[in-house]
Amino acid sequence: MNLVQRYQQVRARSEAICQGLHAEDFVVQPVVDVSPPKWHLGHTTWFWETFVLLPNAAGYSVFNSQYNYVFNSYYETVGARVVRTDRGNLSRPSVADVQAYRSYVDTAMIHFLTEQRPLSDALQATIQLGLNHEEQHQELLITDIKYILGNNPLLPAYPTEYPKPDVPTITTESWVSLSEGVYEIGATGEGFCFDNELNRHKVYLAPYQIRQELVSNQEYLDFIRADGYQDFRNWHAEGWEWVKSNAVKAPLYWHQLDNEWYQYTSNGLTPLIKNQPVCHISYYEAWAYAQWRGVRLPTEAEWEVAQTRIEWGARWEWTESAYLPYPGFTKAEGAIGEYNGKFMVNQMVLRGASEATTPGHSRPTYRNFFHAPLRWQFTGIRLARSC
To answer: How many CA atoms lie within 13 A of 7 on its CB side?
Structure first.
């Protein structure tokens, strides 16, 4: 697949994810962490206009000079922007305006990529970053759409016209043993990776065991029925305050009706499938469940070393590792340097992928990261224990 085809494929998938939404769905922002679908479509288009076309395409004219303020996310280098909490207040530009913006930029990008001239290594790297950046937003589109509709009192079904892996059935509990030793983790530099996956380096690991399967809904239901949410001994102090302040009693999207548990899915409200992996769990909850079981969460190094021997890809998996730079990490110059480095504080690392992840986008060295209370992503639990 050449670069033009790859670009068209990525751009088409973003729009396919939004097929079936009503116009009103494109604007809603229930909480600060969820952005309206319209904003995602505009922001990913702004990325191509700002970082590829404007500095490199001779004679390119911006579609609308005000869109830099509307669709810039967090790039201080590029200028002022709409406050994140106000993205849901943007009735304008309309959905049709954003679609016209995408068409305008796509036409310019395809013309630019088909011109008969070599691309510099730096520009090729920016284009590859842009493709992977849009794939990240495709995952956010799916999770944000689910949150928007899953917090609608009608609990409507939502479109899933995109390929996704099968969710595994969990019927057993088995553990893999890993020996003490010095291992290497991190990206090798072959193929695309984000800067936070570099540099490959050695880590010492004591002997440990890691569970092959994720924790199931039934196992987590046992935790609930054992008053896991009512026992402070299971929780970090901060997690316990979160439980009390938010009256948390179950994972996100779980509903108890007539003493039976249901979960909100793409099919609307459905009976809880007890032998599937538990999902939409915060780090606080994952840690508390592990404490209740008398085990722990794996570190990200333990996860990466064991990744060839475990089943992963159905849920993002919380680790016991804070999101910090690897040894020798350096930020790129300019706005691109703001992509990952400035977020390396007060967040926890997740590993793996989920049913919302764009096929082929994740890899064993991929370092996802979120704040401890967040659970709108497809997040689950894998257990580990020291030998």
So the answer is: 24
Phi/psi of residue 120, each to 5°?
-65, 160
Q: Which range (39-53, 86-100, 138-152, 229-243) has the least confidence? A: 86-100
Specify which residues 379 forms β-bridges with: 316
Predicted TM-score (pTM) of the model is: 0.94
Place of tokens 């032998």: 275
How do beta strands 368-370 and 379-380 pair? unpaired
Place 117 in a pLDDT band, splitting at 50, 70 and 90. confident
Decide if pLDDT at 291 tops 70.
Answer: yes
Provide the residue ranges of all domains of the chain, joining segments of one domain with +. 3-150, 175-386
Class of the 3-150 domain? mainly alpha
pLDDT at 8: 98
* Residue 289: partners with Cβ closer than 8 Å, 6 or more residues away: 215, 220, 223, 228, 234, 281, 381
Q: Are strands 208-211 and 384-386 parallel, antiparallel or unpaired?
A: antiparallel
Give dist(CA 3, CA 15) in Å, integer. 19
Tell me the helix, strand and coil percentages in the chain, rounded to 5: 40, 15, 45
DSSP state of 232: G
Record the tokens describing residue 157, joined without a space: 């079904």
Fold of 175-386: paralog of FGE (formylglycine-generating enzyme) (3.90.1580)
